[in-house]
Amino acid sequence: MGNFLRRFGIGCRAGSRADRIAKARQLDGLVIRYVTERRLDNDDVVGRGGAMSVRGREFILFSSGEVLLRTDIANLQSSFLMSGDGVILTAPNEEDGGKMRTLTAHFVYHRK
User: Reduced to 3 states, what is the DSSP secondary structure of residue 62?
Assistant: First the structure.
């Protein structure tokens, strides 16, 4: 019965720990065209190319030959862009000592 309800969006409460984990698993393996970060009043490109992956309990955003975001998947807040071409990620970055970071990752090609 659980799988039937989840197909219609009834399974997880929005923003719950289970919902954040499910969204992180959806992002696993997606290829990135570029990554932007909001700084002051404009968006700066911080990486080109790369991918997102889930390793155990950890979410990793890899771009331009470096890890831009590494966090526990339970702490990751993600929301897809309305166009479906990317995702906004907000989480404490373990690479920078737990500093909160908000990045927008744009996919190479995404089809629902």
Answer: strand
Q: Is the pLDDT of residue 41 over 70?
A: yes
- Cα(101)–Cα(109) distance, integer angstroms: 24
What is the phi-psi region of residue 65: left when phi exceeds 0, alpha when psi lies from -120 to 50, beta otherwise?
left
pLDDT in tens, 7-22: 665 666 776 777 778 8
What does the buried/exposed string (b/e) look like for 27-65 if buried means 16 or more CB atoms within 10 Å of the residue's CB?
Answer: beebebbbbbeeeeeeeeebbeebbbebeeeebbbbbee
Q: CA 75 to CA 14: how far, in whole Å?
A: 14
